[in-house]
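Whether sequence alone determines local backbone shape is best considered at the level of individual chains. We regard such an encoding as a compact summary of how the chain folds. The sequence in question and its structure tokens are set out directly beneath this paragraph.
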Amino acid sequence: MAGVGGGLGRPLSIGATPGVDLSGDPWRQRKERVVKWVLFSAAAVTLAVSAGFVIALTGKALEFLSNIDLGLLWERGWFPRRGLFDVRTLVVGTLMVTGIAMAVATSLGLASAIYLAEYARPRTRRILKPILEVLAGIPSIVLGFFALEWISPNLVQTVFSDAGTFNLLSAGIAVGVLITPLVATISEDAMRAVPDDLREASYGLGARKVTTSLRVVFPAAISGIVASLILAASRAIGETMVVFIAAAASGGSLYTVDPLEAGQTMATAIASLATGSDQVAAGGGQDAGQAFNSLYFVGLLLFAFTLGLNMIGDRFVQRIREAY
């Protein structure tokens, strides 16, 4: 039997036209290659900068560790100019501020996202969402003074009478306010990206709006919501000025697990110490002379915290991501 559109036993390929070059315009192909290499170069530069950053930090951090007694990393506080480099003080302070901030941002941000995505009318959403996003543009130093002048005396000290003017709790609350727009905006975008078919199916089964929002839309958008929380946590870990002002992060701090006391985080320890190269190395003794190198050690530690958080978050998001 003859093949379709061709001779005996030789079917003609659909869409094939003998003698026609389908490779496209050569000039367009050259432009595409140029664009490809430009984009590749940009990505390569980004990786090179990151690698150089890590190499620079690692070199100075190893020099710091090799020139001090490692027992100084487990002392009673972080006072680098006095030769005390207690890492626990900075790690615990960072975790406390980040935990408090995430508690504030998760509750306020997710509640705002659910309202904007599921309950707010279009006109209300057009008004409220830009206002919420503007909050993310407030300088952190302004929120630091707000935490010192209002949150600490009117909120923290009212509830906890033994709290000092400078404390990690007020700093954590202010950082939570700072990162709330990140959680709210990204989570709201993720929830609005959920297909309406899921909502309509839920309503068709007799579910109420609150049930649809919390048990259908929220789980369907969980990958985007988790991504927003990871981004917010990374922002909270690296926040400097709010904690610097509200938690009295100057000079050094004693080890504490009480959020009602003053303290330091890794970022604020760097900012507090790096006030000038001549002042960083001030003080006597061999350990005090390593104060400058301790900046690189803390910076590498901060980088490792942020990188680890993002890697864990990416793996988690990939496992729970849903495609519609």
About this structure: Residues 70-320 form a domain with the MetI-like fold fold (CATH 1.10.3720.10).
